[in-house]
From TrEMBL:
Keyword set includes Magnesium: no
Key words of the record: DNA-binding
Pfam families named in the record: SSB (PF00436)
HAMAP family referenced in this protein's UniProt entry, alphabetically: SSB (MF_00984)
SUPFAM superfamilies: Nucleic acid-binding proteins
InterPro entries tied to this protein: NA-bd_OB-fold, Primosome_PriB/ssb, ssDNA-bd
GO biological process: mitochondrial DNA replication
Any one GO MF annotation of this record: single-stranded DNA binding
Protein name per UniProt: Single-stranded DNA-binding protein, mitochondrial
Amino acid sequence: MISNKILYPTRICLQQVNRVLIKHFSHDVEPPRIEKTINSVQLLGRVGADPQRKGSEERPVAIFSLATHTNYRYETGEFLQRTEWHRVICFKPGLRETILNYLKKGQRVHVTGRITYGEMKGEDGRSKTTTAIAAEDVIFFQSPQ
């Protein structure tokens, strides 16, 4: 009968060899300390204005505004609708061109993307913090009304 005391060190050595092999020969394996995170946004609303092409020739971007609404009813029965405006940007070449060619003011769309933060200089030279939704997919629901 073989003792577990003899097999245990062998098992540890094989695990160490496997780690070294994976570390040196595999580029697709993520290091174990990197944790996964989620940055996901979904919006359903109406386009505020026709999209604009901005950026440079090398890095063009489509930009449009999207309105979403939150509905409230007070205890008195009064109804209130609060509108929030979102800045949507798109860098993906195929989607960007589709947005610029077909998306129109008033159109209802569903945007899936991620929230991004950045800085830009205003006309007065001051830095201004910006927030935008970087679109990964846009679904057109209907023509503008």
